[in-house]
Automatic annotation (TrEMBL):
GO MF entries: transferase activity
SUPFAM superfamilies, alphabetized: S-adenosyl-L-methionine-dependent methyltransferases (SSF53335)
Keyword Protein transport: no
Origin species: Saltatorellus ferox
Domain Methyltransferase: 96-197
Span of the signal peptide: 1-33
Protein name: Methyltransferase domain-containing protein
Pfam family, one: Methyltransf_25
Gene3D superfamilies xrefs: Vaccinia Virus protein VP39
Keyword annotations of the record: Signal, Transferase
Length: 382
């Protein structure tokens, strides 16, 4: 039994300007995501003084006394919040959450966008941040001559305390990497989303070494996709237009279940499907830095000696520059077959009449000790 990954856009983002944005929502049996999807049992580990989740160090939360940094004069040039909000295309009357809102860099523009008939939940762990936000909301309302519908919510470390089925999307800007209890928070976010709602993560790019942010406050696309899939979310839309950050929207999706016909063949896990789709996405980006995090430490090429993952990414970069056409054309799909508990094979099927890596069309993914599904081999078709 083979499982493919077609493409779909959640309705809350259909009006967004998605030019150049790949939409990768893994369709499992064609059913829409339901909020009852199972959550993987990955746990946060204590390693020395570090807290680690799926191989990633969890960063410390910024203290409210550093709130002025959130409103620094250079932030718009570094992050381009206006471009981000244009991509989100927030409409009048929408109900959204700014989780980890701080003193309102995004909250106030979002409140202006949704208007008095909409609502913005301003969620933060620190009540002091919400006091600073309340002052700014009052000043902006006085300037506009109309109230802003901002609902402050004090979160706890494992729960944003958002009402169920209340949000068209939940936005986390430079926040997710600091969550001390990511699984519990993500479960609560699922419950807060309306039908076809999405979770939008914005994180500084690990792949770009020129981004002057501490490593523990950055994430790769691969890590974001892997952690979201482990908690029942798949990539639905993204933009590469921000100066320093990834902006990625994720839709809730359940883990695939065994076939109803009683077949012994079980479908590939959501994590493997999400990472295969993300790998194809990375191959279209013409940037080996994005490809590298999807690769295992050693990658077997056509049954020969294994290559280091970084060397493989560099070689892929050379192929990208040498080819006049994309190596992975738009419309290429990964059809996956589950081989074992931690092993999946997949065929890359391009649109008819086009090629992918000439004849290299078989990939293999294995799950590592951190729960990440990584590409560790590709072979020529038999």
């Amino acid at each position: 039994m083979i499982y493919a990954a077609p493409m779909l856009i959640p309705s809350c983002l259909r009006r967004a300007p998605l030019a150049g944005t790949l939409v990768l929502l893994t369709a499992l049996g064609g059913a829409h995501a339901q909020h009852s999807g199972r959550i993987a049992a990955d746990q946060v580990q204590e390693i020395g003084r570090k807290r680690v989740y799926m191989g990633r160090e969890i960063a410390q939360t910024m203290h409210w006394r550093g709130a002025d940094w959130l409103m620094r004069e250079t932030r718009e040039n570094e992050e381009n919040g206006q471009q981000l909000r244009a991509w989100l295309d927030v409409g009048r009357g929408a109900s959204v959450a700014d989780l980890g809102c701080g003193n309102g860099y995004h909250t106030i523009p979002l409140a202006r966008a949704v208007g008095p008939e909409g609502r913005v939940f301003a969620v933060d762990l620190q009540p002091e941040m919400l006091k600073l936000l309340d002052r700014r909301v009052g000043e902006e309302a006085a300037r506009l001559g109309t109230p802003l519908n901002v609902a402050p919510v004090v979160a706890t470390i494992d729960n944003p305390h958002l009402p169920a089925d209340s949000c068209d999307f939940v936005l986390m800007v430079d926040v997710y990497h600091e969550l001390s209890h990511p699984r519990r928070v993500l479960q609560a976010v699922r419950e807060s989303l309306r039908e076809e709602g999405t979770l939008v993560l914005v994180e500084f790019r690990t792949e770009d070494k020129s981004v002057p942010i501490k490593p523990e406050h950055k994430m790769t696309k691969a890590q974001m996709i892997a952690e979201m899939a482990a908690n029942g979310f798949v990539l639905a839309a993204e933009t590469d237009e921000l100066p320093w950050q990834h902006a990625m929207a994720f839709a809730p999706f359940p883990e695939p279940e065994a076939p109803a016909d009683g077949s012994s063949m079980t479908p590939p896990p959501l994590g493997a499907q999400a990472m295969a789709a993300g790998f194809l996405d990375a191959l279209r980006r013409d940037d080996p830095r994005i490809v590298a995090p999807f690769l295992d430490r050693a990658v077997m090429i056509d049954g020969g000696l294994p290559w280091a993952g970084k060397d493989t990414a560099v070689e892929i970069g050379r192929w990208m520059k040498a080819e006049s056409a994309p190596l992975v054309p738009e419309g290429t799909k990964a059809e996956l077959t589950r081989v074992g508990t931690g092993h999946v094979t997949g065929r890359l099927l391009p649109p008819e009449g086009q090629s992918v890596f000439e004849d290299r069309v078989l990939i293999e993914l294995n799950r590592d000790e951190n729960g990440l599904w990584l590409v560790d081999a590709w072979h020529a078709a038999p």
